[in-house]
User: Fold Metalloendopeptidase from Oikopleura dioica.
Amino acid sequence: MKLFKFFAVSSAVGATERPETDDVFMNQCQAAYLESKGIKIDQEMIIEDDCDKEGEENRAAVGTVTRWTNLWDPAENKFIVPYYFAEGYEDLVFGKHTGARSMEVINENVAHFERLTCIKMKLITEVEKDDYTSVIRVYGDDPNKECSSGIGRSFGDSFVHMRADCYTWNEGTTINHEFMHRLGFLHEHSRADRDEHVTIHANKVNDWNYRKLTYGPSDIGQWEDLNSPYDFNSIMHYYSGTQPDGLPTISVAGNLAVRAPVDRTWPMSDQDAFQLNAYQGCEMNNKCADAGPNRCGAPFHVCLNQPIGYECVCVVGFERVIDADGVQTCIRSPDPTSEPTPPPAKLVQDMVVMIDGSGSYSGYREATCDGLKTLIRRGIDIEEKRNEKFRFGFTLYSDRTFMTEEFTRTSSRVYDLAMPLVDVSTFVKDDGKTIDEGKLDDVKQSCITRLGSMYGGGDWEEDVLSGAIWTRSADAMNWSEDSAKSIIVATDVHYWTQERGLT
Ligand SMILES: [Zn+2]
Assistant:
């Protein structure tokens, strides 16, 4: 296939006849896809677009046609299609036409997309292009590429070639024609239903730019019926040239001698705009404005246009919650820069009762160990009313330390007779409020038994200090690291005062 050729223009066919050229290219993946369908693609029809680097999300679309639905701006109510001119474009010259003038006219023409469709062509600089996944790169330094484009959106640069004279072609409609290719459109005369309206000359029927597409979802070789009538005014319709046998390249259906009545509408036809909006899946109206001032129904919302309909979202610093009735509201978000406030730690109260074991008369034992029960009840009461965790235990002490070294780790008399700290909550039943009296009695009984194991009486000075040091330092007591610690000395004052005659 020979590319880039002009058709001879016969003076006999009238002033509306324009030269047409092969103008639509494809990337490697699209070509491979077509070849897998049995359509032979000339290597010269393949351009340098990347086709398979956009990541898994679009991998399924690679080789077909990717739409510019990746960048929706709800404030603009548009899909944004960024484009930039390659460096040096304004200095191009072709004949009497300059790149600087071409840039002006291209900008004026593509601005009509914004007015007529939900696409906004956004002019950016080459530096800014790195901010976008996909951009259209307008360049024009290859005279042989004339006015041409790839199909759909590529990753990175999507090339549109605009020689410095392209803005003059077909009364300016060639500019948006090439951009429409980039938006995913093929030629109007390639529609799957075109045989009802036109006949393509046998010389051109296998030319990619004239090939009849098959019905199907929009694809590199397919035509999606977007419910628009065949359109001789479309900017995507070629004007008809004349073939060597004198017949039109495109004639009316079934009459090879009658030239197809193509008359492109600048800047695009109504059907071009309609098809593009349908292809993008969007409504043109401002959905938020149409919905009225209280469209989101609650404070701290903003309305965002979507391609179809609108969305109510919370303003910055607020987040959306939906109540049981399905009504949404916006509440202030927690400050992400501050740590969540932890609940205040419970104060641990560790209390050990140090009981005099030397005065272990049975009456004394009974009264002292009964006191433990009272202590546990009060501890439970404190836990219930205050943010405290209350633990208790007991140790024994004696007046005979100097004789038998009770307060050493090897002493079974004191060390093993101590009761380590336990949480008073373990004396509450599963219902969380009833005190387990049986367990209280067990503690009392255990206390009495242990007390009875100490020396039975004596008349020596009692060694409270040694007992306290041992109680405070023994690992066996299981003190909490961060507890408030206290030791209660339970001594047989009554016994002493009576015996020593102090009362
Ligand atoms: Zn074209």
Q: What stands out?
A: Residues 23-24, 177, 181, 187 surround zinc ion (CB under 6 Å). Residues 228 and 271 are 6 Å apart (CA to CA). Residues 347-499 form a domain with the Rossmann fold fold (CATH 3.40.50).
